Structures are given as C-alpha cells and as structure tokens.
Amino acid sequence: MEFSTFGQKFTRHAGITQLMDDLNQGLTTPNTIMLGGGNPAAIPEVLAYLDNQAQQLIKNGDLIKAMANYDGPQGKDAYINALARLLSKELGWPVGPEHIALTNGSQTAFFYLFNLLAGEFADGRKKKVLFPLAPEYIGYGDGALSEDHFVACKPTITQLDNGLFKYHVDFDQLEVGDDIGLICVSRPTNPTGNVLTDEEIMRLDAIAREKGIPLLIDNAYGMPFPNIIFTEAKPFWNDNTILCMSLSKLGLPGVRCGIVVGSPELIKAMTNISGIINLAPGSMGPAMTLPMMENGDVITLSNEVIRPFYQAKAQQAVTWLQEAITLPQFHIHKPEGALFLWLWFEDLPIHSQELYERLKQKGLLVVPGHYFFPGITDEHWQHSKECIRLNYAQSEADVQAGIKILAEEIYAIYQAP
Ligand code: PLP
C-alpha cells in the first residue's frame, strides 16, 4: 500500500502513540506498575457522583436521547450556554455561547488550531507554533500537517529549597518573529507540573497582542475545573486568548470532550472544521455533565475533592522519592499542578530512553522525558535527555513499588552505567 505525504507523516511512530500503547499495555498486563500515562485517578467520590449522574440519565431517558441524535457542529447548545454562564459567573469573563465550541477531546482541538493558525498561507508565507517554555506536552509534537511546524524556547532553571527546581520562561531568549502564528502553553504544564506565573502569562499575552497572534492556554488541569493547581494563579482569558479545557482530568477521559473558549471568529472557524471532520462532536460528555455545569457541582467537586486528592498524593510522592533517592544529582520540579512529577537526574550517564527501557523490563512504566521537547532542535542539550515523567496519582501501593524499582535502577546506573 502506498501512503500519501499525509499518510507517511501520520503513520510513523510518534511519542504520543508510544504513550497510548504503553497506557493500554499497562492497563492490560498484570503486574505492570503503570506510572506512565495521563489517566486521571479513580477518585471514589468523583466516580460515585458520575455513576449517579449516569443512572439519572438512563432513568429519565436523556442517555438514549443524547446517543440517538447528532448535536450541532459547535456542540450541544444547552451545554454551551451552561458553560458560558458558568465561566461568566465563576471567573467574571464576558463569555457568551458565541465564544465556545466543543471538540472530541482537546487533542482534536490542538490539531485544528495548530493547522488553522500555522503552516502554509495562501501567499506562500509559512508560520510556526511557538512553545515559549520547553518541556511541553508530548501530545502537541506530532499534531501538524507540515514538517518543521513547531519552535520552542529553552527555559531558565531556578533551584529551590529541598531538592526542588522550577522552570521559567526565558524572556531574554524568547524571539517572536513574523514567522510565528500562535504561542502555546499548557498551564499547569504536562509533564512538569509547572504553573506559569501570572506575570509570565501577562507578558506572553502582551507579546501575542503586539504581534497580532493568539495565545493558546491549554487549561486541561486548570481553573475552574478540574482545578488541579496547588499554587496561587489567576485564571486568564481575553478575546486574544484561546483557552482549551477538557472533561478528561475531571475523570471522564473516555467521553472525549474538549472545550475551546475563543473569539467568535475563531469559534466559527472551529465549528466549520468540526462539521467537515466530525459532523458533530460526541454528545455523551455534554449529556453526562450538563447538570453539574448548571448547578455548580463541578466547582464544588473540583475544589473540595479533586484538588485536595491530587495535592496530598503529590506531596506524599515527593516525600517518598526524596527518601528513596538521596543523590545530589536528583531534582524534582516543584509540583504546582497536573498529575505528574518531573524528575531530573543531572549528568545521567545514559539517555532517558534507555532508562525508560530498563525500568520497563523491571515492570515499571514511566515516560522518558525527551519526548516532551517539541520544537527544540538542539540535539546536544543534555538536560532534555536526563528527565522522566511519573504519574503520581495511582494507588499508594503502585507508587511506592514504582519508586522502589526506580531508586534501585538509578543507584545502579550512577554507580556503573
Ligand atoms: N492537554 C494536556 C496538557 C494534557 O496533559 C492532556 C492529556 O493528557 C490533554 C490536553 C488532552 O486532553 P483530552 O483528553 O481532552 O484530549
């Protein structure tokens, strides 16, 4: 079979494919400790709440109604209206239904946005997507129709107390030329748990406005839901911002529901693309969560159950890791949000891919860090090969067992690579 250029690009091995394969393997192979994927934790209160919602839907006939009908290409009207009211009420943003579109997960939204705002233009110009702070989310890296679509900027690294460090945007090195069509950040960041400061966001917003390009903030873990943020940070949106949200980290990755908040012009464009590619976004996520968006339970659950659950887990995992690995070369990015700990093994004698494979052989799945540098072209940047990402939100037994395997392997590697 001969594949087109599109086919060649989208059938080759991608980091995100490895991640999803491993996730599946970890979930289906007994005795594998799965600290690799981005699956949200099974939080009993959240599952019970959602189970109750599902029962209600079945009882009142809304489940079959949702499944038996297409929504419009922008997404279910009642749901978009409820989201607009929620965002206006909770965050004070002037958001109406014309500012919101639904997609089949935010991963789909990124694909639309990256190719809508960057790539080839009718007059022959080419534009790229800029990630102002690498490391960034693995899922962005392959979501472009053209090659050479992304560019990224290395961060500054600040060493904090007690073995932690934090990345910041290196504004001195950040170049935003006329060849940039979109600036994109995840906040909180997957894989590092970094939360860009309010000042960083305001500076990026000012740069984007000056250049006449949008700023995409991927808010998959952010406010107002699921609110997996452990630090002070103001939610940010204006009509030059594209805010991507999702039901996944609330606990519903299987319904594939992403939410895009942007200018009416952008939302119209997204709606048209959605009609061509999907006819309509899936209706299960909106049906399941409409009542909680309308009555505000989504905020209560996020603030009172989801955030405290993850915060306690993150702190616990940091303590266990620091007890298990006391090498001076071992650093953890300050956990400010999201589901992950980003571990940096300074001067690691082997590549992070090899570390990943050695751990996999011992029954522990993590994600090697080098995938998280989309847009970085410096192959000699040692830091990008010295990190791994670990999902701290799994069961205590798994996290502890995983840390034990990791610590043994790390000591062995530093002593005799
Ligand atoms: N954005 C970030 C930063 C993520 O980590 C993820 C999933 O892990 C997503 C977006 C994807 O979300 P969705 O399930 O809505 O496609």
Automatic annotation (TrEMBL):
Transmembrane segments: none
Origin species: Oceanisphaera marina
Superkingdom field: Bacteria
Keyword list, A-Z: Aminotransferase, Pyridoxal phosphate, Transferase
Taxonomic lineage: Bacteria, Pseudomonadati, Pseudomonadota, Gammaproteobacteria, Aeromonadales
PANTHER family: AMINOTRANSFERASE, VALINE--PYRUVATE AMINOTRANSFERASE
Gene that this sequence comes from: avtA
Domain Aminotransferase class I/classII large, residue spans: 64-402
Protein name: Valine--pyruvate transaminase
A Pfam short name: Aminotran_1_2
Required cofactor(s): pyridoxal 5'-phosphate
